[in-house]
Hints:
This protein is of the alpha/beta class.
Amino acid sequence: MVSTPKIHAQKQRLPGLESEMTPIPEVIRDSYRGSGKLEGKIALITGGDSGIGRSTAVHFAREGAHVAFTYLAEEKSDADETVRLIEAEGQKALAIEADLRERATCDAVIQQTLDTFGGLNTLVNNAGTQQINEDMTTLSDEQWKTTFETNVDSLFYMSRAALPHLGEDDTIINNASINAYIGPQSLIDYSATKGAIISFTRALSNQVVGRGVRVNAVAPGPVWTPLQPATIGAYDPEKLEGFGEITPMGRAGQPFELGPCFVFLAALDSSFISGQTLHPNGGTVVNG
């Protein structure tokens, strides 16, 4: 059984840094053995500098993939560490500073990946944001727009730019959330974007699966990443006390428990799966 340290009150400013968290999230199990599932593949991960994105990047590298990832300017120190971890696995890393809310930026990220690595096999749409709001009458137009631009518009722009370069057995994997199914009252805009991602995943899969491109999603439960102290903690540090203990497993997930889900969906192990969602959420049943 996985045992995780208790999480205590703390706060950061968005977008948050993994290096400033207590405890530091765990990226990959020492016992995880790569077996070449992604040998020679090229992956691009948005928001790959920390948290679930970093774990996915390191797991992909351990399975033989070269990895490009995006990060925000404020996350440079975390991005440097992710590059180090990818290269420690013997693979090539490309860190791209990019705010993905604009179409032109997303197009440029895809092109830079192609120019550097000569192709693309897996796109992981992981970048996202949230802010706490417990009264929708005070939820600003700006927050609503920013949440959708970050979580949904970027996913659309990135997927559209990537699709012409994806072929048989290539994949798109979208990071959704348990909140698309349970709808926490303090995350209305965030939950709405994650519901949109589930529907987008299903519809895009139906559109492209006939040509061999698989599109799936992962809907994590509470996972210890920089987004938590930078949003929940920034709103009320005390709300992080015992973060994740509400799950049936009684704890938050660690990023190393998410990375293998993305490996599975990127590899041929999932060759008969498309339009579906994995639910690493600590045992919560969501019927989706």
